[in-house]
Amino acid sequence: MKLKINDGGRAIAGYKGNTGDCVCRSIAIATEQDYKKVYDDLIAVKNSMRQTKKIKDSHPRTGVNKKVYDTYLKQLGWQWIPTMGIGTGCKFHLKKDELPNGNLIVRLSRHITAVINGVINDTYDPSRDGTRCVYGYYTNK
């Protein structure tokens, strides 16, 4: 897959340094929203949820809990498409011919990335030369 280096507007929003913001960054890119808006929205969704330890520790800068970003994306009208189940093995990889066109938010092991019409939009190439397994993706179609 081709790679477009894209921080989702993080630097323009005034954020600096290295961080674990792949969820916020990917959502900003795929939904074409302002990074700061997504950042603030994820905090608001987190604060509206029952505060378990995992939810309380969730933050756009250091890692967003799956329940938080799933709730947020569903509020935006995005749909989760699983590509892997327990015991099924890896059937989809981060490869252009294995994912549909459109704006996608793709869940990988320990990472989330945006894929726009077959092009990875991220701060680095997470594809592992097309061998990285895709657990599923969010789409707005």
Write a structural description.
With 141 residues, the protein is an alpha+beta fold. It has one domain: Cathepsin B, Chain A (Alpha-Beta Complex). 27% of the residues lie in helices and 20% in strands. The chain is built from four helices and six strands; from the N terminus they run E-H-H-H-H-E-E-E-E-E. The protein has helices at 22-31, 35-48, 53-56, 66-75; strands at residues 2-5, 79-82, 103-108, 111-116, 119-122, 136-139. Strands 1-5-4-3-6-2 form a six-stranded mixed beta sheet, covered by helices on one side. Helix 1 packs across helix 2 (35-48) and helix 2 packs across helix 4. The two termini are 22 Å apart. The mean pLDDT is 95.
Describe the structure using short key phrases:
alpha+beta, Cathepsin B, Chain A, 4 helices, 27% helix, 20% strand
Short structural summary:
This protein is an alpha+beta fold.
SSE topology sketch:
Layout: E1 2-5, H1 22-31, H2 35-48, H3 53-56, H4 66-75, E2 79-82, E3 103-108, E4 111-116, E5 119-122, E6 136-139
Parallel strand pairs: 1-5
Antiparallel strand pairs: 2-6, 3-4, 3-6, 4-5
Q: What is the count of structural domains?
A: 1
Distance between the termini: 22 Å
CATH topology: Cathepsin B, Chain A
Mean pLDDT: 95
Percentage of residues in strands: 15-25%
Mass-distribution shape: globular
Proportion of helical residues: 25-40%
| Highest CATH level, the class | Alpha Beta
What gyration radius follows from the Cα positions, in whole Å?
14 Å
Largest sheet: 6 strands, mixed
- The CATH architecture designation is Alpha-Beta Complex
User: What would you call the structural class?
Assistant: alpha+beta
Strands of the biggest beta sheet: in what spatial order? 1-5-4-3-6-2
List segments where confidence is low: pLDDT < 50 over at least 5 consecutive residues: none
* Strand elements, count: 6
Give the H and E element order: EHHHHEEEEE
